[in-house]
Amino acid sequence: MRKIIFVTGNPHKVSEATGILAPLGIEIVQNNCSYPELQEDDLTAIASFGAKWAANKLNCEVMVDDSGIFIEELGGFPGPYSAYVAKTLGNERILKLMEKISKRSAALKCVIGYCRPGEEAVVFSGEVKGKIATSIRGSLGFGYDPIFEVDEVTFGEMGDEEKNSISHRYRALVKFAGWLKEGR
Asked: In the chain, how many domains are there?
């Protein structure tokens, strides 16, 4: 079985990746060695840099995930700073920022970066469009799931199977899996 190290501190991301890649005979192993994160507005640049850095540090093939929520009326904020904003502001304060805004369009974006030692990184992106809910709904998932709504249902109200069939991470992982199937 092929082993790919997933450099992340988030076990939820590892679980999603395992569900998609295990049927291809790929074992996903979590490593939370962390990597220097570029202060960039572009998820692709961040994931590419992180994958290359981690592959060379760990001397094995790795994948990283850089994801974010991009709220249209807030100029794409928090975007690549989503993890930091989630920790410092949280969903309640995001809703407070949005309380007088009627246009609530948002997108969740994910970029998977993959790299082998001494090579250039390859990236795979996924996106799902939705909107910011008016209240926190649901206790499932993690991060922005309870306030990100698709077809009037938040990700926090969806079970894993439903969410993972449409999520931004699912879409990026499916592209990655297709690339791996080609014998990469």
From this structure: 1
What pLDDT score does 37 carry?
77
Distance of CA 95 to the CA centre of its chain: 21
Domain that holds residue 150: 2-181
Q: Which residue is catalytic, options 41, 66, 145, 151?
A: 66
Angle at 87 between CA 81 and CA 89, to 5 degrees: 85
Segments of the chain with pLDDT less than 50: none
pLDDT for position 172: 96
Q: Which two tokens stand for residue 133?
A: 């809910």
pLDDT score for 168: 95
pTM: 0.93
Q: Measured in whole angstroms, how far is the alpha carbon of residue 166 from the centre of its chain?
A: 13
Task: List Cα–Cα distances, 85 to 28, 50, 68, 122, 174, in angstroms.
Answer: 28, 20, 10, 27, 27
In three-state secondary structure terms, 55 is: helix
pLDDT for the residue 38: 80
CATH number at residue 78: 3.90.950.10
Can 66 be counted among the known catalytic residues? yes
